[in-house]
Amino acid sequence: MAKLIYSMITSLDGYAEATEGDLGRGPEDPEVHTFIGDVFRHVGTFLYGRRMYETMVYWETVHSQPDVPPHILQYANDWKAAEKVVYSTTLESASSAKTRIERSFDPDAVRRLKAEADHDLTIDGPNLAAQAIAAGLVDEYHLFITTSVVGGGKRFFPDGVRLDLDLVEERTFDSGLIYARYRTR
C-alpha cells in the first residue's frame, strides 16, 4: 500500500499560506530544490486543490524557458511523469497531461488510490489536506520550515485535530530552512 504524504513549505509559526506576502526563503535555493526533487522523485500521484494545481502547472512548460538549470528540468520531468488529480468545482479543464479533475474530495476513493498504487501519493494545499487529515488518510507529514514568522494565514495543520507523530528525519539547510519528516503513529 502506498503512503499519502502531506508536504508544504511553512513559516516558522506554522502557516502554509501567509495572509500577506510569501513565507520566506525556501525552494528557490538550489540545494533545497534539489533535495525536494530527490524526496518526491518517485511520487506516482499528486492530489491538488485548484489553487495549488494552478501554481504547480508551471512545471508542465518550464522546459521552454531559456537557461533552465538541470535540477529544475529534472523536477519538471518527474512532475510531468506523475498522475495528477485536481479537486475543483470551478476548473473547466486541465492544462497538463496525466491530469483528471474531480468535483469533490472522496476519502474512500483516496483510500482505494492508496491501496492500488505502486508509488506514494502526495496531497498539497492546506484546505485539501485538512480533509484528508480529518479522514485519517495522511501517513506522513513533510514540513519545509522557513526562517520567517508571518503572523497569520492558513495553518499547515487544521484546527481541532489531534495528531501523534514520530519524527523520522530532519535536515537543516545553509539557508536556515529546516526539513522535518513525521510519520503518523
TrEMBL record:
Domain Bacterial bifunctional deaminase-reductase C-terminal stretches: 3-178
Pfam family, one: RibD_C
InterPro entries named among the record's database cross-references: DHFR-like_dom_sf, RibDG_C, Riboflavin_Biosynth_HTPR
Domain of life: Bacteria
PANTHER family from the UniProt entry: 2,5-DIAMINO-6-RIBOSYLAMINO-4(3H)-PYRIMIDINONE 5'-PHOSPHATE REDUCTASE, DIHYDROFOLATE REDUCTASE FAMILY PROTEIN (AFU_ORTHOLOGUE AFUA_8G06820)
This protein's name: Dihydrofolate reductase family protein
